[in-house]
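Data card: per-record layout.
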Amino acid sequence: MALLKPCPRRGARWSHAGHPRRRPPSPRARPQLDGSGPGDDASILDLGAQDTGPDGAAWALALRGCTVPAEELVLAWTLRGAPHFYRRAEGAHVAAAVAPLSEADAAKRVFDASKPLREAGIPVLDALDRVAAEMRDIVTEPTGKGDLSSALTERLDAPYLRWCRPCQATHSYEQTFRLSALRAGLELEPGTSPPVLHRIPGWRGPARSVPAHLDPVRAALRLLGPSTPQQVAAYVDAPVKEIRAHWPEDVEPVEVEGTTLDALADDVAALRDPVPVDGVLLLGPFDLFLQGRDRELVVPDPAARKDLWRVLGRPGGVLAGHEVVGSWRPRSSGRKLRLAVTMWSGGDMPDGVAEQGERLAAHRGQAFDGFVDG
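The structure for this 374-residue chain is written out next.
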């Protein structure tokens, strides 16, 4: 079993017993951020770049030096029902890759929508196909989510529908709606709110096979680092049993911070002798770097984890080298952007935060106006 080395450029952290403890570099830093692509690609597109909030997928790709033309990307609801960007040329293979692995998997992914379907004797996988077929038939031109939902409600039977208190209306269950859209060959128009959906040009249905680099289990192990089936299952939102059944055979155990995890065999050498990662980045709140379910390893301090992974109003993360050392929040006023930065150590901000603030402001079409208190 490989024991991951500490990063030589990092100083010691002190345990509660007063003994120095060195953390290994984050196993996801290099594959996610170092040499992601030739400028028009990024490895995070294998798992999808989540597009949630103003500092979503476009900022995540910019941080990785990716300048892929917008027309070469496709936006769809996929893992966890969240909107993700992928390479347009791989759309059909993505649809196959993110599809539920089994009936039990489908039931878990649609949450409470599975109960009325089960009581009516309708398999969830069949229900997703039925909803997808109806959505495909309805969307013959760009269609807003509300209009699509209303039209869909008129076509579906009671087991597919629920009363929505916030909307004060009866409509399809949300996750069933979202997970059926890509099956129907529908994409989201970037920048639309409420979302507008339209047909993917040339759609012939999901592919019959999944390339290894798009397999969510393998991609999670490669991009999020050594993991357990439980952690990957939580990321994909699938049953642990299904993820364990699809666990790659070419994994090797590695020890990270005293915990035994699995890593892809081809990645072990790089994990065992890592190259230090320098510089500072302002990660968006839903950047893939922060999406793994090994939060205790990424941010050891419980108070810091509570700050970073809030249920509402989630901030971004300050990444210094391979460590997430603080959080940041945008404070916009017209064309000016200020940042509220919290350093969990209580110390000064690392060199480079102001430069990254300038970069973020330019990305947003604003001017950076310094820092404010949180």
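Known properties of this structure: Residues 6-24 have pLDDT under 50 and may be disordered. The longest strand covers residues 323-333.

See the next section for split statistics.
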